[in-house]
Each structure stands twice: as C-alpha cells, then as structure tokens.
Design goal:
Chain B: Residues 1-124 form the Aconitase A/isopropylmalate dehydratase small subunit swivel domain. The complex is a heterodimer of chains A (467) and B (210). Chain A has helices at residues 5-13, 37-46, 80-94, 109-115, 147-156, 181-192, 207-210, 214-222, 238-244, 253-264, 315-326, 352-362, 380-388, 391-398, 447-456, and strands at residues 23-26, 29-33, 57-60, 97-99, 124-127, 141-144, 158-161, 165-172, 200-205, 231-233, 276-281, 288-290, 298-300, 341-344, 372-375, 400-402, 423-426, 441-444. Chain A is an alpha/beta fold and 467 residues long. Chain A folds into two domains: 1-286, Aconitase, domain 3 (2-Layer Sandwich); 288-464, Aconitase, domain 3 (2-Layer Sandwich). Chain A is globular. The chains are: A alpha/beta (467), B alpha/beta (210). The structure holds iron/sulfur cluster (SF4).
C-alpha cells in the first residue's frame, strides 16, 4: 500500500522506527517566541538541562512587543518587558539565534521563518504556538505544541507524539477573482466545522491548491488549527522550490541540488490511503465573513446572520451566546454592519502579497470617518519591502496607521486593544470572545474585505471596488 | 509530576462546546514568565462580573459554593481549542483540576494536559451529556476516575470505560519526568541523527551542525 506524504516524513523521523504507540520523532527545527518560549528556556535552565542542538533553534520577539514606531523593550502590556528580557537572556545563555526587536529579520514567527528558509520541505518543525501548522504550506511536518513539550524538544531534539489520522481535502476548481485563500479557509470551516479536522493531519490537494502561490498556501494552512487538526501539509512543487531558492537558511551548492531532488519526490503515493477524504469545490467560494465567535460561524459576504448554524455543531447555547456577544439578530445582512475598526495583520494575512492586494483597493481612496484602521506588516522584511514599493504611502494616505511588525492587535495581552463592543473587521484567524480586547467584536475576513470595509465604514464586498 | 492513580472528587459540568484557551485563561491574566499564579485568572471572563475584576459572577458555575473543591471538569466538545498556551492547563491544575472529561479535546491542549499530570478522559457525547446533567441536578456530586482500570464511575453505579495510549497511561501512573526518560535514550538519538545527517545533509548544512 502506498504512503501519504505525512507517513513518509513521520516514518523517516521515528527513532527506532514507527510503532503502534506514540513514536519518538527527531525534530529538525524548533522555533520560539517570547510569549511561550521564554518560560520553556527559563524552566530548563532552572533544572540545569542544556539545549541539545542550539543551531536548530530560532527565537524571535513577536507576540508581546509593541508595534508602535520607535518601540523598545518597554511595552504597553504592564509586565511585557519581563517576557522579552527572559527570552533574550535565555536565548543568549543557550546559544540560540535570536531575531530581536532591532533585527532586520524580526517578524511574526510564522511569517519570518518561511521568509528566512528556516522551514524546509520534508523536515519536522515545532513551535509552542498553535499556528505553527502554517509551515506545512512548504511541505514540512510542522505543528504547535505547549511549553513543556518545547522543553522536551529543546533538551532532547525529539518529541514523543501519537500518530494522527490522515485526511485529504481535495479542492477542485479555482478561486474566483477577489477571492483568496483566507476565504477558502473560512469556507472550509463553515462547511466542515471547527471540529472537522480533529485527530487528523490534513493534506490539502487538488487544482485549487496547486494554483495558490506559497503565501496563499501559508494562509490556507494557517487556519488548520481552527479546524482542530494536528496540522496541515501541502506537497512541495516547483513553486515551493522557487520560493525557497536563495533564502538565508536553505542549503546551498550540492546540498541544494540534492535537497531539490528529495523535495520533488516527496508526495503522497497514488495508492496512499487516507482515513478520511473530503472534497470541496473552490469555484463557488465568495469572500467570507464570520458573524459569530467561532470561525465556523461564517457566511458569504452577501449573506445574512443565519437562523441556524450550517455546520450544526456549535449547539443552541453557544449560538445564542455568540449572537448576544456580537450584538446581532438572525437575518441581519452582513454588509449592513457598521464597523468601528479595521485591522490588517497577523500570521494569517500580513505578507507582502496581502498588503499589495489591500493597497490596490485603498489606492487613492479614504477610510470612512470614525473608523480606526491599522496595518501591521507581518515581518520587518515585509515592512521594508512594502516601503520600497511605496505601499506604506497608500495605506497612510487612505488613513491607515502603518506599524512595526508583530502580532499586535491579533490578540489582547493586556496592552493595546480595541474597545468593548467595538466592531472590528480583521484579517486575523480568531474571533473568540475578547480575543482582540475585552468585549471586542471581531469579524474575520480577507485583507481585501478589510480594506473595502474600512473605506465603506461597514462590511463591504471588495469585488465591487476592485480596480 | 504527581503520579495519577485514582481520583474521587467533586465534578463540575461545563457543557459548552469549543471552550477555547482564551476563555480558560485570558491573555491579560498571564502576567509573568511563570507557570504559577494563574488559578485566579481561570475562566476570568466568565467567573468575575467585570473584566479585570475579582467580584464573582454568581451565574457562573465555578462560583457555586457546593463545587468549591472541584477537581474534575466535565466539558463540551473540542475543549481547549485555540491558542496553544499551556497556561490554560497550568491554571486548571493550580485551581485543582486533575481530570477533564469531554467528547473531544484540541490536540495541543490534550498533550499539555499529559505533560502536567492532568488526565484527559474522552467519552462519547451520548455518555458525557447525561453525566453532566446528573452533576447539574445534584451540585457537589462526586465522580471517580480510575486510571489503572481506565474507568469513570459516578456515585450511583454508572461505569464507563475510556481509552488512553499505553505509554501515556504509564507516564501518568508513574509521574516520571518525560525529559529524564528520553535522555536515557541519548545514544540512540545521537546515532539516528548521525545517520540522518548522511542521508539528508541539506537538513543540517544550511544552519551549521552543532
Ligand atoms: S499573529 Fe496572532 S495568531 Fe498569529 S502567532 Fe501572533 S498572536 Fe498568534
């Protein structure tokens, strides 16, 4: 019987060979950030346990750092400095590469690691952060863990993991103009529910996936954790190779040639068996907007707050709570909802392509009066690149704030936030209660939809504005 | 880690689905680089009347006096979804919870439970719902979780078997430190790596081998 791409990577990393129980897997790359990584480093050093392969570990400041111009290690979050300093000291003591506040490569961990070529096809990669699944877009087996597991990985270069089941989602057709991987990810959540991928590693395949560029694949895989999946993966192809070529931490010379050969051979065999197979047609997907407090509570932009959940999984109580929290009535058209704020950022949607597409919509236009609009590039590299292209001027002239890179207002850690009951249209990945600030009401959407809505002052379909 | 054998304790029913880690421990409650000091922030958004405040919301179940010494939580589907923050488990454990019963867990959260000696018990929704209803009808009732026998029992004769991976079960029963256990295999790991570096030089060369 054939094997899936997941099986090939897993079996190749199982120390002592794969078994029926949990396997001990070799971990090729470990990423850390100051929010969950510092505590792992601190706890290891308190126990005098050394980091086994510091060269394979990369740390970055992204979560707690402020994103205002001229930021320092002091943060709006009252105790944020402690997280930054603990991580800095821990990384230094362990000899771990750190992309600190002043590094030109600093950025959201899931944005900067593909940019630098830290993530490679066929490798295992972990980070104490749930959106690590993003990196599966490059054909890596990458998944999120907790801090204690990170300690184990740091100390031993291994993790004991139970093999997930295999799922393939074959996405046929092609996304229409103005419709993006974000809309696709939301549409999948709407169809299959936030528990849809539970217990599975999801391989995304099919014509619509192959047509996505690497940034869009990162966006699609990013939301696999919202799908309750162990992770997601997309087989590497020539687009993957082209993307990685020449990046800082990719192999060079003969090793590169050998790597490319290995990578292009890495895919699921034609007769590979999956525990679950789903299919989905991308052609009919519209820009999607969430109305509730889980990402599966989502409808097409020209739709209304539904009378009942499509995925039928959240239950009546959760649904009632969501309506109350969001201040909504069933039947309300999404496009009629006035917004207080618009946010473009996060590991889902803050790469250069995202900013370019949003800028195209904003070019020569103005944000509606009273709407607070913020753009936070996903990495310092993205920011520099955008500035070279003049995108920052377009954002600023439209009325957007233009920030330093970081997680920023994707989540509220005690520093900066949107106000209670503020309605925010956001290119992020989580619309949980109080995720972006106490009482804040989040509507998830693509960067294009956020841009169009910022201009209109209410949730708006970007296709109507496209240049 | 404290070994887990058998636990008989007050159980709390919290049958919402998709309870996320932001709800279990809001970011704003994580104030220091520590695994401690989190119990007060557990379910803070639901437990207290005002954001950041400490006045208990009488409508939230954990504030029921009969449930004060609860150590078992019975919850809805997809428990622990969202952010991977282990603080969610640290907060639950510090508050006193040692076992969580649900139809399904988020995978990262489940692993975090195991890493902290909190037992994840998965049972069908058709089993969990009546148990929760029973607990709701008689606040302060006990459940027993018997890991050796892999059995959950209530006070009125109900018994339900649950599954758990053999290795995970042994780890919980022994309470042994996972790092120390793996380090015993250091030489096997090192030779695996050496062979791997021959087979996949590209995975090592670009970052410099340590
Ligand atoms: S941008 Fe948001 S979702 Fe992504 S890593 Fe940062 S906090 Fe997490």
């Amino acid at each position: 019987m054939g094997r899936t791409i997941f099986d090939k990577i897993w079996d190749g990393h199982a120390i002592g060979g794969p078994s029926d129980d949990a396997d001990l897997l070799l971990i090729d790359r470990i990423l850390l950030h100051e929010r969950t990584g510092g505590v792992a480093l601190k706890s290891l050093s308190a126990r005098d346990i050394p980091v086994s392969a510091p060269d394979h570990v990369f740390a970055v400041m992204d979560h707690i750092v402020d994103t205002f111009p001229g930021r320092t290690s002091k943060t709006l979050m009252p105790t944020g400095t402690e997280f930054i300093e603990t991580t800095r000291a821990g990384a230094q003591a362990a000899g771990i590469r750190l992309f600190d506040l002043d590094s030109p490569d600093q950025g959201i961990v899931h944005v900067m690691s593909p940019e630098l070529g830290i993530v490679l096809p066929g490798t295992t990669l972990i980070c104490p952060d749930s959106h690590t699944c993003s990196q599966g877009a490059l054909g890596a087996l990458a998944w999120g863990i907790g801090s204690t597991e990170a300690e184990h990985a740091l100390a031993t270069s291994t993790l004991k993991v139970q093999r997930p089941r295999r799922m393939r989602i074959t996405i046929s057709g092609r996304l229409g103009p103005g419709v993006t991987a974000k809309d696709l990810a939301l549409a999948l959540l709407g169809r299959f529910g936030v528990g849809g991928g539970a217990g599975h590693i999801v391989e995304y395949a099919g014509s619509a996936v192959e047509a996505l560029d690497i940034e869009q694949r990162l966006t699609l895989c990013n939301m696999a954790t919202e799908f309750a999946a162990f992770s997601a993966i997309i087989a590497p192809d020539t687009a993957t190779i082209d993307y990685l070529k020449g990046r800082r931490f990719v192999p060079a010379g003969g090793d590169w040639n050998r790597a490319v050969e290995d990578w292009l051979a890495l895919s699921s065999d034609p007769d590979a068996e999956f525990d679950t197979e789903l299919s989905f047609d991308a052609s009919g997907v519209a820009p999607m907007v969430t109305w509730g407090t889980t990402p599966q509570q989502v409808v097409a932009i020209d739709g209304a707050v539904p009378a009942a959940d499509d995925a039928g999984q959240t239950g009546a109580e959760s649904r009632e709570r969501a309506l109350r929290y969001m201040g909504l009535e069933p039947g309300t058209p999404l496009e009629s909802l006035a917004i207080d704020a618009a946010f473009i950022g996060s590991c889902t949607n803050s790469r250069i392509g995202d900013l370019r597409r949003a800028a195209e919509i904003l070019d020569g236009r103005k944000v509606a009066p009273g709407v607070k609009a913020i753009c936070v590039p996903g990495s310092s590299t993205v920011k520099r690149r955008a500035e070279e292209e003049g995108l920052h001027r377009i954002f600023q002239r439209a009325g957007f704030e233009w920030r330093e890179s970081g997680c920023s207002m994707c989540f509220f850690a005690g520093g900066e936030s949107f106000g209670p009951q503020d309605r925010v249209v956001s290119s992020t990945n989580r619309n949980f209660e109080s995720r972006q600030g106490p009482g804040t009401r989040t509507h998830l959407a693509s960067p294009e939809t956020v841009a169009a809505s910022a201009l209109a002052g209410h949730i708006a379909d970007p296709r109507k504005l496209a240049a | 880690m404290e070994p887990f054998t058998t636990l008989t304790a007050v159980a709390v029913p919290l049958m919402r689905d998709n309870i996320d880690t932001d709800a279990i421990i809001p970011s704003r409650e994580i104030r220091s680089v520590s695994k401690k000091g989190l119990a007060d922030g557990l379910f803070a958004g639901w437990r207290y009347l005002a954001i950041g405040g400490r006045d208990p919301d009488p409508g939230f179940i954990l504030n029921d006096a009969a449930l004060k010494n609860a150590r078992i939580l019975v919850a809805g589907e997809n428990f622990g979804c969202g952010s991977s923050r282990e603080h969610a488990v640290w907060a639950l454990a510090e508050y006193g919870f040692r076992a969580i019963v649900t139809p399904s867990f988020n995978p990262i959260f489940r692993n975090n439970c195991l890493a902290n000696g909190v037992l994840p018990v998965i049972l069908d929704r058709a089993v969990v719902e009546p148990i929760a209803r029973g607990l709701g009808a008689a606040p302060g009732s006990f459940l027993t979780v018997d890991l050796e026998e892999q059995e959950l029992r209530d006070e009125v004769g109900g018994r339900w078997r649950f599954d758990i991976d053999t290795e995970e079960k042994q780890a919980l029963l022994s309470g042994l430190d996972p790092i120390a256990r793996t380090l015993q295999q250091s030489s096997a790991i090192a030779s695996f790596r050496d062979r791997d570096a021959q087979a996949r030089p590209w995975a090592y060369s670009s970052i410099g081998r340590s």
